[in-house]
Fold this protein.
Amino acid sequence: MYQPYPTAGQPPEPSARPEPPGSVVMAVRFMYAGAIVSAIDLIIGLATVGSLRSSLHKADPTLTSSQLHSAEVFLVGASVVFGLAGIGLWIWMAMMNKAGRNWARILGTVLFGIDTLFLAFGLSRTGAAAGTLFSILTWLVGLGAVVFLWRRDSSEFFNALRTRR
């Protein structure tokens, strides 16, 4: 009797997902470092919130006490929201790039380009030395991540996973 398909034995194992190469691992480490730098920046920003009121008053002496308070509350709230979003974005991008999602590599590069524009704008203004220091540090971390994401072995990893899907 003829059996077209064998009934005994092990089915063939699906090929394992390739491990990310060292360059992707380094890019992911840079992204986690970016989350840490962003968290430190947020903490320092919240720790120095006491000087915000005087800075706002110095910028516009015509503001009433109520207007100063409203501006303070808004700026602190916006700082917390954007700070937490930035930390979350770093972590999410690290996870997606480690998983080999090519769109995450492209999005990370686009976000780095946007950060470059913000840094250039920030450097053209005077003052806020601590903020500028953290902006430069964040930019350098992003640069490291992007450089490692676009190395040849990283590209081969992303391309191999893209063809498997």
Observations:
- Residues 22-164 form one domain.
- The helical segments are 22-47, 52-59, 65-98, 102-124, 129-149, 152-164.
- The radius of gyration is 24 Å.
